[in-house]
Design a protein that fits this description.
This protein is 38% helix and 20% strand. With 244 residues, it is of the alpha/beta class. The strands form three sheets. The protein has a five-stranded parallel beta sheet with strand order 2-1-3-4-5, sandwiched between helices. A four-stranded antiparallel beta sheet has the order 6-7-8-9, with helices on one face. The protein has a three-stranded antiparallel beta sheet with strand order 10-12-11.
Amino acid sequence: MATHTTPPRPLDHDGGAVRVLVVDDEPDLTEVLAGALSSEGFEVRTAGDGRAALATARGFCPDAVVLDWMLPDMDGPRVLRELRTEQRSVCVLFLTARDAVEDRIAGITAGGDDYVTKPFSLEEVLARLRGLLRRAGMAREPDGDRLVVGDLTMDEGAREVFRGGDPVELSRTEFELLRFLMRNPRRVLSKAQILDRVWSYDFGGRAHVVELYISYLRKKIDAGRPAMIHTVRGVGYVLKPATP
């Protein structure tokens, strides 16, 4: 019988959900980021430009802001400066298409706490955001970072995986792919969903990447054992307990 441990819910010092404001003028990207953050337990609000971000922040009081560098009405650094006049401790993770070293330096100089370039992996954004909050001492997480599906176990904190008690060595990408599957047991996930969640918000037709890493996982998870990773033709993939 499969059990699924809910992913650790990020909490502030008072036990409430950590509040994150996502600011970007690309609606599809904003929606994907907000969905990913919400699924991880964050309380999320969104804004499509700088003025909307500042207005939302006044009532929402975010713990962290995921902030696009270029917005229709003002740039990210200006939004950051105005935010910090009222909320000095807010953490800011810049998103930008510019990846030159001087641009990274400019982002940090402007007061940003970290910097992620587009296109990016959602897992990278989540990891960077959690890191910022931990370093700022603004968030804590309860115990309970184990995922269990059948005889497959993952310790998210230790980044360890076991099948039937035997350790399974995975690369970083394989681990993130398996984690997404294990957080959604018995649920059929499309290639687009998997690519969006594990690699990037931009699908771009790169279904072969998902197929390739699913094959890698199968060799490590299912080799010599009853299969857990199944293909649903024309739809995607599903992870479920092995049938004896």
